[in-house]
Specification:
The chain is an all-alpha fold and 107 residues long. The protein is built from 4 helices and no strands.
Length: 107
């Protein structure tokens, strides 16, 4: 049969040993997910906590300094005329390249 060890050996300790030895790989992910879940349910008291009173709730709603790895923020904000500036830059570069090449066909 598939999954059984020969000679009637018990494979259950091997399975638990593999789970324990692989914990350094999956534990940080589980921890991050747990923290994210508790933070998302903070206004209701978290997963197993009590519901916060009005002062704690006001403090939580006003506290936007919490760091979360789930936020995507571009490094550089695009400016209003960036497309026009980029097009003008490309046109100037093309003109400089045409002048640099020279030759009787490009004049």
């Amino acid at each position: 049969m598939l999954g059984e060890l020969p000679f009637g050996l018990n494979s259950e300790p091997v399975k638990y040993t593999l789970v324990v030895l692989s914990a350094p790989f999956w534990w940080p992910f589980v921890k991050a997910m747990w923290e994210e879940l508790n933070e998302s349910l903070a206004e209701e008291g978290g997963l197993f906590g009590e519901e916060p009173d009005a002062t704690e709730l006001a403090r939580m709603r006003g506290d936007y300094t919490r760091e979360t790895p789930m936020v995507s923020d571009p490094w550089e904000k695009p400016s209003r005329g960036s497309a026009k500036v980029a097009a003008a830059t490309r046109e100037l570069e093309a003109e400089v390249e045409r002048e640099r090449r020279g030759g009787f066909r490009n004049r």
